[in-house]
Design goal:
Elements (H helix, E strand, L loop, with lengths): L1 E4 L7 E9 L5 E9 L2 E7 L2 E8 L4 H11 L9 E6 L5 E6 L5 E3 L12 E2 L1 E3 L15 H12 L3 H6 L3 E7 L2 E8 L2 H15 L6 E5 L5 H10 L3 E4 L5 H9 L3 E7 L2 E4 L5
Parallel strand pairs: 1-6, 4-7, 13-14, 14-15
Antiparallel strand pairs: 2-3, 4-5, 5-9, 6-7, 8-10, 11-12, 11-13, 15-16
Length: 262
């Protein structure tokens, strides 16, 4: 797989002046920074497959992760090359084999950005049950402690989600994005490009966990999905069906294992 990413880091924040109104009616001007929205189209074999709204960092990982979690690719071996232009607004992906696309069915996902999949691959379901694994509590606590130290961009803007990729109890990669789905895809894309064994990894997300987040973790074949927030009922059922370890309310001093009520 050849990757040619000319996009660079991109502009992550914008400065602005805002008027702060206090409860007593007083007002004052204040300088602040807000997170930037970036737009990128993913072109697969010369067809526009997705249009994403994201932050402009780690675009190569976002592209690979999104293609994997949407079932367009099944692994790095499917990809011939990835080219991202200097503006970062177009990512061209060429697969080693031609695949059959169909128009993607409109979905109102729980994503907090305007991400849209325009095409999807024509074949049977790409999600399969995971091998049952046990999770060491100290690995979860290590990631929770890593998260508690704060994230760079969120610290400046309070406007991003974070995702951490853990292996053997250590955080090996972390990223931020305006959308929690994007942040998870970036970690998955990193894992894919680096050839890291997925079943030995866990993903830690700062966002809530509905079924579309569980679907991403299952597609990535990771051993566990950990969140500081809470799941939905359908997400818990889906995680159980696919043998995904789903851990929520994860903080440095406690966490909860989400199980289906018997």
């Amino acid at each position: 797989m050849v990757i040619n990413d000319k996009s660079g880091a991109g502009c992550e924040v914008t400065e602005l002046k805002q008027i702060v109104v206090e409860a007593d009616g007083s007002m004052h001007e204040q300088d602040d920074v807000i997170v930037c929205e970036h737009f990128v189209d993913i072109i697969v074999n010369e067809r526009r497959a997705a249009s994403l709204v994201c932050t402009p960092s780690n675009l190569r990982y976002l592209v690979l992760g999104r293609l994997l979690t949407e079932g367009i690719i099944r692994g790095a071996d499917d990809v011939e090359s990835v080219y991202i232009c200097e503006s970062g607004h177009t990512a061209r992906v060429y697969l080693k084999q031609e695949i059959t696309f169909k128009e993607a069915e409109p979905r109102e996902a729980t994503c907090c950005t305007g991400n849209r999949m325009l095409l999807e691959r024509v074949y049977a379901d790409y999600l399969f049950p995971l091998k049952k694994t046990d999770i060491r509590p100290d690995y979860v606590f290590n990631l929770a402690k890593e998260f508690s130290s704060g994230s760079r961009l969120h610290g400046r803007t309070k406007g991003t989600h974070s995702c951490y990729l853990g292996k053997d109890g250590k955080c090996i990669f972390s990223c931020e994005d305006i959308g929690r789905h994007n942040a998870m895809d970036k970690c998955i894309g990193y894992m894919l490009e680096k050839g890291i064994e997925s079943e030995a990894c866990m993903l830690f997300t700062t966002g809530r966990v509905p079924t579309d987040m569980v679907r991403k973790a299952v597609a990535a074949r990771v051993g566990a999905l950990v969140s500081k927030a809470v799941p939905t009922d359908a997400a818990v059922v889906m995680a159980s069906d696919y043998n995904l370890n789903l851990i929520c309310k994860a903080w440095p001093d406690s966490f909860a294992v989400a199980n289906v009520s018997k």
